Amino acid sequence: YAKKRGAGALSYFDESLRHTAMRELAVATALRGAVARGEFEVYYQPIVATRSRRTLVFEALLRWHHDGVLVSPGDFVPVAESTNIIEEIGAWVLDTAIADLARLRADGHPDVSMSVNVSAKQLRDDSLPGLVRETLAKHGVNGDCLGLEVTESMLVDDAQKAESVLVALAAQGVLVVLDDFGTGYSSLSRLRNMPISVLKIDKSFVAEIGHAPSALSLLAAITSMAEAMSITAVAEGVETEQQMAVITEMGCTFAQGFLFGRPAPLDTWLSAQNRQR
Ligand code: C2E
Ligand code: MG
Ligand code: MG
Ligand code: MG
Fold first, then answer.
1. Which residue has the higher pLDDT, 191 or 163?
2. Which residues form the EAL domain (predicted)?
3. Pairwise CA distance, residues 26 & 149, whole Å
4. How large is the ipTM?
5. 122 lines ligand 1 (CB under 6 A)
6. Are 34 and 66 in contact (CB under 8 A)?
């Protein structure tokens, strides 16, 4: 019986594995040349100062127009990453987001900054600081107007390499942003040698406000640690005024979430006057 059951489990596993592999292959094939075909678009989501609720930063969030559907990064970034296509896509996102930052600053948002997500592969590439420098120069934007979002796991795997790339970026004034904080297994103190300026508290903590009593003490611990390390705390996924009140009380100086705006095309954020032309 045990043997039979084992065999059944194995063949089920095989099926799902084959399905995943075929899906990944299909996505990888469709991604090839997608940049050149103009299938990507960058959406922007505001990040506001908790005190004034003014938008001081936009986060660039990639979208893929594929077969008449708008595909979210969760469905293709992992495949792009495992097939090296991410390098081309990443460079395109950086160029587009910085070009759009220059437009936003010229039109209605004179002092906003831009925050761009980078992948593990990009971060391990020595050419990233040079690419960032060239792209900023191309669009006449200063390094201190740009944040690059990385996650804990990227800093823990091959920490020395990550640190040298981050130090080179920080030397240009670029802000290093630790994204989705709290979902990994590292501690902030373990990352104290990294030049981190901003920490984004993962939306799963914010979602637990008002539901799990431990959410408040976890938020308090993260924000006080960030403060002790002179790191700016941003709350992600703020959807309600109740969550906003709590994260403000906890000392988060910035907030991002549907309460303030969903990711949307650049045009949505340009001044109304300009949009009419
Ligand atoms: P992330 O960087 O943590 O981005 C925040 C995600 O949370 C976005 O999902 C955003 O739409 C969503 N979000 C924002 N506010 C709220 C809210 O109030 N409630 C809820 N439930 N969700 C909210 P999105 O756009 O699907 O992006 C998913 C992830 O894909 C990003 O997570 C980021 O890790 C990755 N990603 C996005 N753009 C890029 C890119 O250009 N390059 C790379 N390498 N990764 C990217
Ligand atoms: Mg992000
Ligand atoms: Mg995040
Ligand atoms: Mg995320």
1. 163
2. 24-277
3. 28
4. 0.98
5. no
6. yes
- Average pLDDT on 49-61 reads 97
Q: Which residues pair with 234 in a beta bridge?
A: 200, 254
Which residue puts its alpha carbon closest to atom 44 of ligand 1?
Answer: 119
SS3 of residue 256 by DSSP: strand
Q: Give the integer Cα–Cα distance in Å for 21 and 202.
A: 29
Q: How far is the CA of 73 from the centre of ligand 4 (A)?
A: 10
pLDDT of residue 50: 98
Q: E-strand spans in 159-268?
A: 175-181, 196-201, 232-235, 254-256, 264-265
Residues 6+ apart with CB under 8 A from 200: 149, 177, 178, 179, 180, 181, 234, 235, 236, 256
- Closest listed residue to residue 201, CA positions, set 147, 159, 247, 260: 247
**C-beta of 140 in contact with ligand 1 (< 6 A):** no
Task: Give start and end residues of each alpha helix (H) in 107-187.
Answer: 120-123, 128-138, 152-156, 159-170
Q: How far apart are the first and last CA of the chain?
A: 74
Q: Would the pTM count as exceeding 0.95?
A: no
Pairing of strands 232-235, 196-201: parallel
Give the whole-angstrom CA distance, residue 248 versus residue 246: 5
Q: What is the percent of the chain where pLDDT is above 70?
A: 91
Residue 277 has pLDDT above 70, yes or no: no
